[in-house]
């Protein structure tokens, strides 16, 4: 649905050159809710501005819905842009216009008949739960309600893609939740592919199925949300994951570990169905070992349970080895933690 092939973007201002994107390769499939996360200045906004061609790449290809944007004429590009809706951190509503008129803007610009506009706008206000606010003005609405209007306006021209640039960053956690649930409905009920730009891992955890982590103009890690959360590789990804999953042995436990003898410590990661099995009990029963759970955490991601445990296993070396194999055969990810 959205593809970037070796995309570079360099800004030149007088003597200052900024390489905002340095060789981005990215693939967002139809139906995805794809998250892009990174700290400030990583290049997230530049990336999203390339998808709707607010910016042109310095090099590389941006392909949306099978069309290479670089190759399109201005009129083809305008038609293409109608397929892409966008919502923003500060909502970007016109303060002097009613909620109805704000949502109607794309339809008025497309010169749609009045009756059709009325029907579509009311249908969208129904969808976002704001029918009764049609005649209100943006200043009379809460932040969450304003973002709902932003979503309704973005959907007005029936886009295939919705881009969300820090769309929940100005909202409190509860309102964020309700907006994210609404985005899920947009994805499912209107079959719209969604790209979410954020610096909050909880947003990714809540709604995305895939995630790309950006740093200094590059994608440093990419994958399914479950894989990236379960097994972050890059230190920056680990830092982001830490904000939502407590994923390390507490210091006090670490200190006491140094005093123990020849047992070994393993990080064990279990997902999905296996997470509901009593695998610690099973491994102890099947092998001549003792297991001490040092730390355990259970999180739900994409309606799948992810369990991360730190297990201290004591016993003969060969028994420990067999126990580790048993866990791996069960589908667990097992890694020894070097003390
Ligand atoms: N129009 C521009 N002209 C010059 N430099 C720019 C421009 N837009 C962005 N940059 C630079 O490109 C780099 C990436 O910026 P970008 O806004 O894409 O990052 P970001 O990850 O979205 O950060 P934030 O979350 O703070 O918006 C930064 O160093 C920024 O200063």
The tally of strands reads 14
CATH class of the largest domain: Alpha Beta
| Poorly predicted sequence stretches spanning 5 or more consecutive residues | none
> What order do the helices and strands follow?
EEEHEEHEHHHEHEHEEHHHEHEEHE
Amount of helix: 25-40%
Q: Measured on Cα atoms, how large is the radius of gyration?
A: 24 Å
Biggest sheet strand line-up: 6-7-8-3-9-10
**CATH-level-4 superfamily name of the largest domain:** P-loop containing nucleotide triphosphate hydrolases
Family: Belongs to the ABC transporter superfamily.
Pfam families: ABC_tran (PF00005), NIL (PF09383)
GO cellular component, one term: plasma membrane
Protein name: Methionine import ATP-binding protein MetN
Report what the structure shows.
Helix 3 packs across helix 4, helix 3 (99-109) packs parallel to helix 5 and helix 4 (114-127) packs across helix 5. This protein has helices spanning 44-51, 74-81, 99-109, 114-127, 143-155, 173-189, 201-207, 225-230, 235-242, 251-258, 279-286, 317-329; strands at residues 2-13, 16-28, 33-38, 59-64, 67-68, 84-88, 161-165, 193-198, 210-215, 218-224, 264-271, 289-301, 304-315, 333-337. The protein has twelve helices and 14 strands. The protein is 36% helix and 31% strand. Strand 4 (59-64) and strand 5 (67-68) form a beta hairpin. It folds into two domains: 2-242, P-loop containing nucleotide triphosphate hydrolases (Rossmann fold), CATH 3.40.50.300; 251-337, 2-Layer Sandwich (Alpha-Beta Plaits). Bound molecules: adenosine-5'-triphosphate. Adenosine-5'-triphosphate (ATP) binds at residues 11, 13, 18, 20, 38, 40-46, 199. Residues 11, 13, 18, 20, 38, 40-46, 199 line the site of adenosine-5'-triphosphate (ATP).
């Amino acid at each position: 649905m959205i593809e970037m092939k070796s995309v570079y973007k360099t800004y030149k201002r007088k003597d200052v050159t900024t390489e905002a994107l340095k060789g981005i390769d990215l693939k967002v499939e139809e139906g995805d809710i794809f998250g892009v996360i990174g700290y400030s200045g990583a290049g997230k906004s530049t990336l999203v501005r390339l998808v709707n061609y607010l910016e042109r790449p310095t090099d590389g290809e941006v392909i949306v819905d099978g069309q290479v944007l670089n190759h399109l004429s201005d009129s083809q590009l305008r038609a293409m842009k109608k397929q892409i809706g966008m919502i923003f951190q500060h909502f970007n509503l016109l303060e002097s216009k009613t909620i109805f008129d704000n949502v109607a803007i794309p339809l008025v610009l497309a010169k749609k008949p009045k009756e059709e506009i009325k029907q579509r706008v009311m249908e969208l206000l129904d969808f976002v739960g704001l029918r009764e606010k049609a005649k209100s003005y943006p200043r009379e609405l809460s932040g969450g309600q304003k973002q709902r209007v932003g979503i309704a306006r973005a959907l007005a021209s029936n886009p295939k893609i919705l881009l969300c640039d820090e769309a929940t960053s100005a909202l409190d956690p509860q309102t964020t939740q309700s907006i994210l649930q609404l985005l899920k409905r947009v994805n499912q009920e209107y079959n719209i592919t969604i790209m979410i730009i954020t610096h909050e891992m909880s947003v990714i955890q809540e709604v995305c199925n895939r995630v790309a982590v950006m740093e200094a103009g590059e994608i440093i890690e990419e994958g399914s949300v479950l894989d990236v959360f379960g097994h972050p590789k890059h230190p920056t990804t680990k830092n982001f994951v830490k904000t939502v999953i407590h994923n390390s042995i507490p210091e006090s436990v670490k200190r006491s570990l140094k005093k123990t003898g020849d047992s070994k410590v393993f990080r064990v990661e279990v997902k999905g169905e296996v997470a509901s099995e009593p695998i610690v009990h099973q491994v102890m029963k099947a092998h001549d070992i003792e297991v001490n759970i040092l730390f355990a955490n259970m999180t739900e991601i994409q309606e799948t349970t992810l369990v991360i445990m730190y297990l201290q296993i004591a016993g003969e070396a060969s028994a420990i080895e067999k126990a580790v194999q048993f866990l791996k055969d069960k589908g667990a990810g097992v890694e020894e933690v070097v003390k």
